[in-house]
Amino acid sequence: MGIVNLTPDSFFEQSRFQDEDSLAKYLTLLTEYGFTFVDLGANSTRPGSKKVTPQEQIKRLGPALTYIRKNFPQIFISIDTSSSEVASWALQEGADLINDVEGGNNDPELWKVCGKFNAPYVLTHSRGTQDEMHEETAYENVTTSVLFELSEKINRIQEAGVKDIIIDPGFGFSKTLEQNYELLQHLSLFQIFERPILCGFSRKSMIYKKIKVQPQEALNGTSVLNTLALTKGCDILRVHDPREAFEVIALLKM
Fold first, then answer.
1. What is the CA radius of gyration of the chain?
2. Any idea which of 3-12, 165-174, 229-238 has the lowest mean pLDDT?
3. Are 120 and 164 in contact (CB under 8 A)?
4. What is the Cα–Cα distance from 176 to 245, expressed in whole angstroms?
5. Percentages helix, strand, coil for the chain, rounded to the nearest 5?
6. Is 204 a catalytic residue?
């Protein structure tokens, strides 16, 4: 899953796309390296970011969604949003699935929207609102707590009519640096849900703070964690860098 940020303030500057030419080049790379999904986001969730209204998200997403659907029909379009209003609009406009970093915490109506459109839903583990999610890190045991909280959500999401659920343990959301790595060590336990597992480490602070670099220098660390995740049952990698992710996958298939 390739990342396209349609925001002016996402933490990794090179992932921001403001014109068709740069978007076309990136999408061409995704197709060359056999990517299945592209994830469009119009609301940054980096620490300290301000929540973007549904109307502004739709305004930012519209041109890219239309362009991709017309010119790259083979790529499934994921919409990174926690708003049921944005999700409903996007699925009507040709998006394929919804990636919700809030896990329905603040707008569970989003589950009903996905059920109505028979759209797959990425359930990300996090806690609280966007303003709180990076501070909500109190766990007796992070792995068992995340497993339990996701299990509870899965039942409620299914009751809302969603058939296809993808599990994202939520690396970087509502977890300390140490908790992120503890969760990664136990990633194979998430196969208990018998659903696809998505991992998003790409250039995140759990990498660049750990090895004391900037996001621009965190590509090698990203590849290391992507490799480890795939050996522990990860099915989908959400990444900024297509070629390097392709290489990891290709080498592990040897």
1. 17
2. 3-12
3. yes
4. 25
5. 45, 15, 40
6. yes
Torsion of CA 169, 175, 177, 183, to 10 degrees: -30
Average pLDDT, the chain: 92
The b-or-e profile of 95-120 (16+ CB within 10 A means b, else e) is bbbbbbbbbbbbbbebbbbbbebebb
97 Cβ partners below 8 Å, 6+ apart? 37, 76, 77, 78, 79, 119, 120, 121, 122, 164, 166
Percent of the chain with pLDDT over 90: 84
Question: Residue 234 corresponds to which amino acid?
Answer: C
Domain containing 28 equals 2-252
CATH code: domain of residue 197: 3.20.20.20
Question: Which H or E element spans position 111?
Answer: helix 109-117
Asked if 33 and 243 count as a contact pair (C-beta separation under 8 A), the reply is yes
Closest CA to 159 of 104, 209, 234: 104
The CA–CA distances, whole Å, from 196 to 6, 132, 192, 234 equal: 26, 27, 11, 7
Q: Do the Cβ atoms of 15 and 3 come closer than 8 Å?
A: yes
Indicate the SS3 state at residue 7.
coil
DSSP 41: E
Phi, psi of 229 (to 5 degrees): -65, -40
- Percent of the chain residues topping a pLDDT of 70: 93
Strands (E), the chain: 2-5, 37-41, 76-80, 97-100, 121-124, 165-168, 198-199, 236-237
pTM above 0.90, yes or no: yes
Q: Give the integer Cα–Cα distance in Å for 40 and 238.
A: 11
Of residues 60, 153, 175, 204, which has the active-site annotation? 204
Number of domains in the chain: 1
Q: Which of 60, 153, 175, 238 is catalytic?
A: 238
